[in-house]
């Protein structure tokens, strides 16, 4: 192995009875690209936080550049050149690219006055070094997600990073953006900078990393050279189970001819154009297409958050105008948004409060106060039905693993008894085993007669879990397929992207 940059020895960390890390060892070499994988809740984020010095560990020690730390703080991490890029990127949206890149350096140098020229020079120099043509004067809020990611990486590089840790950096990126990110990571490697990369997308993990550490239930399963592994082995080591990849197309005998939702020539300038389709009770309809194809904008319109310019929406055989989510809910529509952290959950509220948030008016007692008994009963019912894994419903949603957070959002909507349920990217950030469980749960809801729309940029996800798939590109429907009569290749050809299929 290359010269050791970081060695974590027997790191343990518990949270109120949960052993998040149990005597974990990890070694990162200089210039190494190392991936951390594991199911939701296996301890990846906790390990990252320990390496960044943002949480105290209970036991163990860190050796960085040969120096041992029993108590490692965020300031030590910065001095040792460890930079973490979290999923929210921690950028200042209203500042320019140059300001975002140089702000920490300016603060570190204790400058009282901002030297705009120097700021721009630092940013230009770093951007040129990694060969990314970004305008230093552009506001960060106007950048694509991929370019925001680049700004966060360049900011880390200007702080003399020796190790950049990225937590699920590709979630909101298109395939070509992922390729550019990977070339930046390779460029860092050539400069001797190490990368630790966390992802649930196993195809990406196998593509970019040299070594992989697998965690399960807070314990290390093992360290592997990437060329020793394939999707099958990786999944087995992660879950301890053989997940059958020989898949069967979803076949639904419960589909009924009754239309629950119909769109007729729905259009919104710059978002989508002339969208028409019908969803029937018990049907699962997939909508796929690359990011930016107009899928999410369309879903937001059906949920009353993005009023269309023209066209009609029909619910249960009647034309309706939906101008607010409240109206949508009253019409029996549920919506699981793309970003569960920002739009789907109250992270600093209990699981019980999250599940009951959509139906508080139905939980009133005779004095018009919220009945804590009814609230707890409702939350318990849905938590049990959806197998939410938690010691108590009093736990804050932010402390649940990704798969369980997603179940809480689904539970919250099921409590409203929707007849139409739209799920936007339901399994982003969800591990492979939980993904299979979430798909089974969606099949079960359709079997009970709910009309379901799954929006996803993962072609296999819609192909293997839907009755029908619509492909969208630049705001238009460019293809419609019955899943029983199509293939992955046919769909990929239209969507314009091929990836290794690792869907369950
Ligand atoms: N602040 C906290 N309080 C209580 N429990 C916590 C806290 N943070 C994490 N946990 C628990 O520790 C365990 C490990 O969580 P962690 O977030 O590290 O997993 P992960 O592998 O990053 O999961 P994901 O893939 O969903 O992001 C989980 O059981 C989680 O519920």
UniProtKB/TrEMBL annotation:
Keyword annotations of the record: ATP-binding, Cell membrane, Membrane, Nucleotide-binding, Repeat, Sugar transport, Translocase, Transport
CDD domains for the chain: ABC_Carb_Monos_I (cd03216), ABC_Carb_Monos_II (cd03215)
Molecular function terms, GO-annotated: ATP binding; ATP hydrolysis activity
InterPro entries reported for this sequence: AAA+_ATPase, ABC_carbohydrate_import_ATPase, ABC_transporter-like_ATP-bd, ABC_transporter-like_CS, P-loop_NTPase
Residue intervals of the ABC transporter domain: 6-242, 255-499
Record bears the keyword Lipid metabolism: no
Keyword ATP-binding: yes
Cited PANTHER family: CARBOHYDRATE TRANSPORT ATP-BINDING PROTEIN MG119-RELATED (PTHR43790), XYLOSE IMPORT ATP-BINDING PROTEIN XYLG (PTHR43790:SF1)
Stated name of the protein: ABC transporter domain-containing protein
Organism: Vecturithrix granuli
């Amino acid at each position: 192995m290359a010269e050791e940059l970081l060695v974590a020895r027997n790191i343990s960390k518990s949270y109120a009875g949960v052993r998040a890390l149990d005597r974990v060892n990890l070694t990162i070499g200089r210039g190494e690209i190392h991936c951390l994988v594991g199911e939701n809740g296996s301890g990846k984020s906790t390990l990252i936080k320990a390496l960044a010095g943002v949480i105290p560990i209970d036991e163990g020690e860190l050796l960085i550049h040969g120096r041992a730390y029993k108590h490692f703080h965020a300031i030590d991490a910065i001095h040792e050149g460890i930079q973490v890029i979290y999923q929210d990127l921690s950028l200042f949206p209203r500042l320019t690219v140059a300001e975002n890149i140089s702000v920490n350096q300016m603060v570190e140098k204790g400058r009282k006055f901002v030297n705009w020229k120097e700021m721009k020079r630092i940013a230009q120099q770093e951007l040129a070094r990694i060969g990314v043509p970004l305008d230093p004067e552009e506001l960060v809020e106007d950048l694509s997600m991929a370019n925001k990611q680049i700004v966060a990486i360049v900011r880390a590089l200007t702080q003399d990073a020796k190790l950049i840790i990225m937590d699920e950096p590709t979630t909101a990126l298109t395939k070509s953006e992922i390729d550019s990110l990977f070339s930046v990571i390779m460029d860092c490697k050539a400069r001797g900078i190490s990368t630790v990369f966390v992802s649930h997308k196993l195809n990406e993990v196998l593509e970019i990393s040299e070594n992989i550490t697998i965690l399960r239930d807070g314990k290390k399963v093992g360290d592997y050279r990437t060329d020793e592994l394939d999707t099958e082995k990786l999944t087995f080591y992660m879950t301890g189970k053989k997940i059958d990849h020989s898949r069967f197309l979803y076949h639904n005998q419960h589909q009924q001819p009754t239309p629950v939702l119909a769109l007729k020539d729905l259009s919104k300038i710059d978002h989508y154009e002339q969208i028409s389709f019908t969803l029937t009770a018990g049907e699962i309809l997939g909508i796929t297409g690359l990011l930016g194809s107009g899928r999410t904008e369309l879903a937001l319109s059906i949920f009353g958050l993005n009023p269309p310019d023209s066209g009609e929406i029909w619910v249960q055989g009647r034309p309706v105008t939906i101008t607010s989510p409240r109206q949508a809910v009253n019409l029996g529509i549920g919506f699981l948004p793309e970003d569960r952290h920002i739009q789907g959950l109250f992270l600093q509220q209990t699981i019980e409060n999250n599940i009951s948030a959509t139906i508080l008016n139905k939980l009133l007692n005779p004095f018009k106060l919220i009945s804590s008994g009814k609230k707890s009963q409702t939350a318990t019912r849905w938590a049990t039905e959806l197998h939410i894994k938690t010691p108590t419903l009093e736990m804050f949603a932010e402390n649940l693993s990704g798969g369980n957070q997603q179940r809480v959002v689904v539970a919250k909507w099921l409590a409203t008894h929707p007849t139409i349920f739209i799920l936007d990217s339901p399994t982003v950030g969800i591990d492979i085993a939980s993904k299979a469980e979430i798909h089974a749960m969606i099949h079960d809801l359709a079997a009970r007669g709910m009309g379901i729309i799954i929006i996803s940029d993962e072609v296999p996800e819609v192909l293997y879990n839907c009755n029908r798939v619509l492909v969208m590109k630049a705001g238009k429907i460019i293809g419609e397929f019955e899943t029983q009569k199509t293939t992955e290749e046919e769909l990929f050809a239209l969507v314009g992207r091929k990836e290794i299929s690792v869907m369950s």
